[in-house]
């Protein structure tokens, strides 16, 4: 039996899920890459804030690859996973998956590594709290 189209989806639930709309397109009519990156950044930032118990900023995007286009009407799901933590920083693996509207066919469209830094109220790097003190999140695994 051929594998299900969804068989390689990351485990767990996506951090965010959104439908690509006509306002999200580039002049050629495909969904604008910058819109997808902003969704990835939002999702990774949500995961970072849970782990850091507070404010975080993106300091770097280490890698980012666009594998397939996204088109209007696609359901766009962003999966995040913390793969590394330092004293103040977190590295988050982010995958974007599309599901074509009215189908069950899913495919991975982007993948990247985002680095966040936890900040204090003076916008300076802040040490991450111990793992046991962080807020539980259903959408990712903590490193
Ligand atoms: C994030 C920021 C506070 C870091 O300041 P900084 O003086 O470089 O801080 P540090 O040198 O102490 O580094 C803090 C952590 O970030 C990591 N870091 C800094 N620059 C990095 C880079 N380019 N790539 C990967 N990690 C980096 C350091 O390794 C360190 O991690 P660790 O504590 O886990 O070891 C500062 O660069 C900043 O405010 N940048 C702008 C952020 C922003 O506006 N983002 C867009 C909107 S969210």
Automatic annotation (TrEMBL):
Per UniProt, the keywords (alphabetical) are: Hydrolase
- Specify the HotDog ACOT-type domain's residue ranges: 10-122
Q: Which GO terms describe its cellular component?
A: cytosol
Q: InterPro entries attached here?
A: Cytosol_ACT (IPR040170), HOTDOG_ACOT (IPR033120), HotDog_dom_sf (IPR029069), Thioestr_dom (IPR006683)
GO annotation, biological process? acyl-CoA metabolic process; fatty acid catabolic process
The terms under GO molecular function for this entry are: long-chain fatty acyl-CoA hydrolase activity
Q: What residue intervals traverse the membrane?
A: none
* E.C. numbers: 3.1.2.-
Keyword Signal annotated: no
Q: Which Pfam families match?
A: 4HBT
EC main group: hydrolase
| Similarity section | Belongs to the acyl coenzyme A hydrolase family.
Q: What is this protein called?
A: Acyl-CoA thioesterase YciA
